[in-house]
Amino acid sequence: MKKLFFTLFIIPALLIAQEEDAILNDAINRNSSNALRINYKTENKGNPYLYDEWKKGYLVINDTVISKQDKLQMDLEKGELIVGMGEGRGTIIDDKSVTGFAINKPDNLNKHFYVRLEPSQFEDTDRTSQFYEVISNLEKTNYLVKEVQKYLYDPNRSRGYQTENSLPMEWKKRTYYFIKNSSGKYIKTKLNKKAVLKVLSDKNKEVKSYVASNKINFKKEHDVVKLLNYYHSL
User: Fold this and answer.
1) What's the rounded mean pLDDT across residues 48-64?
2) Rounded Cα distance, 82 and 92, in Å
3) Most buried residue, 70, 74, 118, 177, by CB count within 10 Å?
4) For the chain, give me the number of helices (H) and strands (E)?
5) How far apart are alpha carbons 50 and 146 in whole angstroms?
6) How far apart are the C-alpha atoms of 83 and 59, rounded to whole Å?
């Protein structure tokens, strides 16, 4: 895991050698049967993707190899990574040799960093192997990760228009956070004071003192990361 985070944060400009490029091509070719057309314009409001268009970024192969990509997308309904193939088409990448990836944010300077996590890395092991977004910070730690999902919401039902269906279905987001505890396992939590302090209760006195002296805002992801960095330094 440490090697992966070094790769993601420290050397994103690393170029891959020819033989390493073959690893990526094999991974994509093995998934060519999963080719699909990305449809951003439907009768529904919004779409199930991270962004409304393809974004640049890079893939991480086997925790060590970086491969720049001109077209990446994340399907937030299914949790699938998609690599663009041209003409609006994409390939779902589910090969486990792809252990992480990054997608540019709109400013093209910052990135969304994702890492593949296994069920054994969670306190609740009733999960599947999938990608989680790492909340990045100056210390480059992985103590806070999140899963963002999109789901179709029917506004007609909430307004009592079940029979008219006058409003289009729309894609909405829901977010789940996971904190790494002292045992190195991720625990599902909410970003509020009560929930976070419960996970960190084994060092309650020190943590509460840090929260008070540093005016931690539990609604801000990066404030929580600061607290987690302190907690794991004790």
Assistant:
1) 90
2) 5
3) 74
4) 6, 11
5) 14
6) 9
